[in-house]
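Researcher: I'd like a candidate sequence for this fold, 228 residues long. If you have to choose between options at a position, lean toward the conservative one.
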């Protein structure tokens, strides 16, 4: 991998910054969600601290970020011009555009081969860690640039299609659950078939079958208990 990058693998500062209420986003491992950047709830540092940290490393558009500590192997590509910086558990990989398409690297690092290399090369103490040198030594396929671009374009289209299918499936499941809950409510409260109804005594359930009594749960022999 190191031969395909524009510069050696870098990471953020190895110190705990001083946080401010309004400043420059400072991304941590939890800032990569579903292989995308997420600034929701992100901590912030002052402009002066950002400028100081940027002397060592500063993400820019088309950089690929890789988590190398705690939850290793999460990947995201920088697709924003928003100023931000990263903490040390995030590695910054800057592809050499003459040798590597950024989105191809983004997908290649998610592939089983790359993920296995990270797991195999990680050390485990209180948490998993992958050394910077081990990241640079990782081996990935390096086809010609037009093939890299074609693969990245194809995976972008397929990812969008699959995401749309997942969203549609999720909507169907939510709709089914809503209808099922309404059906359960109708049958348990209203009974089966056509019956004469009356307003519920408590007013909670609307109209219930006239022949049904309504009573407190404790009168039905139930014991309410809690765990230790």
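Model: Candidate sequence:
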């Amino acid at each position: 991998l190191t031969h395909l990058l524009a510069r050696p693998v870098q990471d953020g500062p190895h110190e705990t910054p001083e946080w401010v209420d309004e400043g420059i986003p400072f991304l941590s491992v939890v800032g990569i969600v579903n292989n995308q950047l997420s600034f929701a709830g992100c901590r912030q540092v002052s402009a002066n601290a950002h400028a100081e940290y940027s002397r060592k490393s500063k993400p820019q558009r088309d950089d690929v970020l890789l988590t190398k500590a705690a939850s290793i192997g999460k990947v995201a590509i920088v697709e924003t011009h928003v100023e931000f910086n990263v903490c040390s558990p995030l590695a910054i990989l800057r592809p050499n555009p003459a040798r590597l398409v950024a989105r191809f690297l983004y997908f290649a690092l998610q592939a089983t081969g790359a993920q296995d290399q990270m797991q195999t090369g990680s050390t485990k103490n209180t948490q998993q860690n992958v050394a910077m040198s081990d990241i640079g030594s990782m081996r990935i396929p390096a086809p010609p640039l037009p093939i890299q671009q074609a693969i990245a374009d194809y995976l972008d289209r397929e990812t969008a299609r699959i995401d749309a299918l997942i969203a549609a499936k999720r909507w169907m499941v939510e709709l089914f659950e809503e209808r099922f809950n309404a059906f359960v409510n109708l049958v348990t409260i209203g009974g089966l078939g056509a019956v004469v109804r009356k307003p519920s005594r408590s007013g909670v359930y609307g109209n219930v079958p006239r022949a049904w009594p309504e009573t407190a749960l404790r009168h039905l022999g139930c014991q309410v208990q809690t765990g230790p």
